[in-house]
Amino acid sequence: DQIGPLARSAADCAAVLDAIQGKDKRDATSLDVPAGSLLASLTGDIRGMRIGLPSDCFGEGLEPQVSDAVKATAAVLEARGATVEPFSFPLMKYMVPTYYIIACAEASSNLSRYDGVKYGWRAPEYEDLTDLYCRTRCGSEGKRRILPATFGLSAGYYDAYYKKALQVKALIKETFDRAFEQYDLLLTPVAPTTAPKLGESLSDPLKMYLSDIYTVPANLAGLPALSMPCGFDGGVPIGAQLIGPALGEAAVLNAA
Predict the structure, then answer these.
(1) Are 226 and 57 within 8 A, CB to CB?
(2) Helix or strand holding residue 143 (H, E)
(3) The sheet that has 50-54: what strands, in order across it?
(4) Over the stretch 100-149, which tens digit does the pLDDT of each residue have?
(5) If DSSP codes are grouped into helix, strand and coil, which group holds residue 39?
(6) Rounded to an integer, what distance in angstroms lies between the CA atom of residue 238 and that of residue 219?
(7) What is the pTM of this model?
C-alpha cells in the first residue's frame, strides 16, 4: 500500500503530489526522481493517447450500472481524442488472494512488535496475561488479517502461501508491463458495486475484500492509479480508475 492525496480535482491532486514526491533523505523507500512539475504539465490534451479497457474487469460480479458508467467514461475519453480498446487481462481472478496473502503477511510481520507488554498501547485494566492480550491487541478485523497471515509465514507453510503469492505478484507485474507496451493508460472500475452505506461492509468481510479487486493490482505492481467520480446510482457515487505505467503520474493526472 501507498499513501495518496484525496483532492477535489486532478489539479489539486497534482499540486499535493508535487509537494510530496521526490527523494527524502529521511525515507529510504523514496525514489530519487525529478519532482515538482505535475501541476504545470496538466493540459487536458489526450489526443493520440492509447487507453486499454481490460475486458476481464467487466465480467461476473460487476454491477451493470457501474459497468455502464465506466464505459461512458471511456466514450468521453474517445470524444476527446484518445483511442480506447478492450484487451484481455486474464490474471484478475488472482489479484485479491495474492494481495491479501502479501499485505496481511506484511501486517503480521510489522505489527508483531505491538504486543502491549514491551511495545505499543496497553489496556489500563486487566486480570491476567491472557486478559491483557485480549483487551490490548487487535479487534476482529485485525485478527482476521493477522492470524491467517502468521500461519502462512510459519515453517512448513511459507512456500505454499507467501512465496507462491510473491511469484504470482511477479507474473502480475509482467502482465502489466506487456499491457503498457500497447497502451499509455488502463481504465477500470474502482469497485464492483456503488459505494456501500456506512458500516454495511463490516457484516460481510469476504465481500468487503472482493470489493478491492480492481484497486489492489496497482499496489501489487507498483503503479500509479487514480480514482475519479464518473456518475451516480440513486445518489450514490460510482468511480472509474486510471492506471499508468511506473512513474506515469503525469499521464494519469492529465487524463483525469
Answers:
(1) no
(2) helix 140-153
(3) 83-87, 50-54, 185-189, 236-243, 225-233
(4) 999 999 888 887 777 677 777 888 899 998 888 778 777 777 778 888 88
(5) coil
(6) 21
(7) 0.89
CA distance 252 to 244: 6
The C-alpha atoms of residue 246 and residue 181 are separated, in whole angstroms, by 12
Helix (H) or strand (E) holding 134: helix 129-136
Task: Return all residues near 30 (Cβ < 8 A) that are at least 6 apart.
Answer: 22, 23, 24
Cβ-contact 224, 218 below 8 angstroms: yes
Candidates 227, 214, 254, 190; CA nearest to 49 is 254
Is-contact 239 190, C-beta < 8 A? yes
Integer Cα distance of 129 and 114 in angstroms:
15
Q: Are 227 and 238 in contact (CB under 8 A)?
A: no
Tens-place pLDDT, residues 29-53: 899 998 999 999 999 999 999 999 9
Burial of 90 (0-12, 13-18, 19+ CB in 10 A): exposed
| Residues contacting 35, CB < 8 A, separation 6+ | 18, 21, 22
- Number of CB atoms found within 10 A of residue 250's CB: 18
Supply 173's cell numbers: 507485474
